[in-house]
Specification:
This protein is α/β, with parallel strands linked by helices. It contains ten helices and seven strands. It has a seven-stranded parallel beta sheet with strand order 3-2-1-4-5-6-7, with helices on both faces. The two termini are about 40 Å apart.
Length: about 325
């Protein structure tokens, strides 16, 4: 049984909440007593699975708490207005005139194109190794690769060098970069300003963004998302300073490598997961629930003096030797 520490008159606004970190955080904060407004953007075909997850959140709600799920574009002024109108309407009672206690920015809408052409010999050495191994084992390189990929998914991480990432040929363009930086970075400020302008932040409010180790490590194909994450961190620090007089705290949580839909979209994610498991002191990946628990702790009254920080939720992965 989860401890109930929040009033149902207070809300958590989760941006990007139909999977991964956002969904796990919605479940955790609902169990802790908060009402939940979850914004997502999903196709109709995915809704059967998503509604099952939403039913779990509804089952976690405490008495008098509310749950709203809005399937809309959180990156447009119209989407922001519709969402805040919905919260303002649902929270109409004397104890909830400033209802939003927690805002989590968990939008994963970015471009994963490389910024430079892939060298011709990028995978040549791996191909030569695969062909040599296949010849020694009297099989084909395609069959060997198939087996290596399957075993890597089963946790045989030492095979990761045999499964190089596959990248597209199209290079990232300015529009891709700008869209990613806004979507996964500076849009957090758009939401904070809009919520503040409507007077919907609680007297002690917590704003959270999510970053990754790609904020200071260059992964091929991750340039736009990396730029967005560093922009997010900078915006969070500014929110922490300029909105502190109004009772708003802002922090960034840096998750370890986590098996989410967003990670799976990154070329080479299987190798990234293998490396993370090998490197992590606990020998496993971070889970969305690990991160949700940290956000829950930072949302409590006792964490009010944590502001403008980057907090790692990775089991020590970042500080462990490669």
């Amino acid at each position: 049984m989860k401890e109930v520490v929040f009033s149902a008159a207070q809300w958590a606004l989760i941006l990007g909440g139909s999977s991964g970190f956002g969904l796990a955080t919605a479940k955790r904060l609902a169990a802790a007593g908060l009402s939940i407004c979850l914004v997502h953007r999903d196709r109709r075909g995915a809704m059967k699975r998503i509604e099952r997850e939403f039913d779990i959140i509804r089952g976690n709600l405490q008495p008098k708490a509310h749950f709203q799920a809005l399937n809309l574009d959180a990156l447009t002024p119209e989407g922001i207005t519709t969402t805040l109108d919905a919260i303002a309407e649902a929270a109409r009672n004397p104890g909830a005139h400033r209802p939003i206690r927690v805002m989590l920015h968990s939008i994963a809408f970015g471009n994963l194109k490389p910024i430079a052409p892939i060298p011709d010999d990028f995978s040549r050495r791996t191909e030569e190794l695969m062909e040599r191994l296949a010849g020694e084992l009297d099989t084909t390189s395609d069959r060997l690769r198939e087996v290596a990929e399957r075993l890597l998914l089963e946790g045989f991480d030492a095979l990761s060098p045999l499964v190089p990432p596959v990248y597209g040929d199209t290079l990232i363009e300015d529009e891709d970069m700008e869209r990613t930086i806004y979507s996964m970075g500076t849009s957090m400020l758009s939401w904070v300003q809009a919520i503040f302008g409507r007077g919907l932040f609680a007297e002690d409010a917590r704003v959270f963004g999510l970053t990754s180790e790609g904020n200071d490590i260059a992964w091929r194909g991750y340039a736009a998302v990396s730029a967005a994450k560093t922009a997010l961190e900078s915006v969070s620090r500014s929110i922490a300073v300029e909105y502190a007089p109004y009772g708003i705290r802002s922090n960034i949580v840096q998750a370890g490598v986590t098996d989410t839909p967003a990670l799976r979209a990154i070329p080479g994610s299987a190798s990234m997961k293998a490396t993370a498991r090998s490197r992590n002191p606990f020998g496993r990946l971070t889970t969305p629930e690990d991160v949700a628990n940290v956000i829950y702790l930072l949302s409590r009254d006792e964490a009010a003096w944590i502001n403008g920080s980057l907090i790692r939720a990775d089991g020590g992965e970042h500080v462990a030797a490669s």
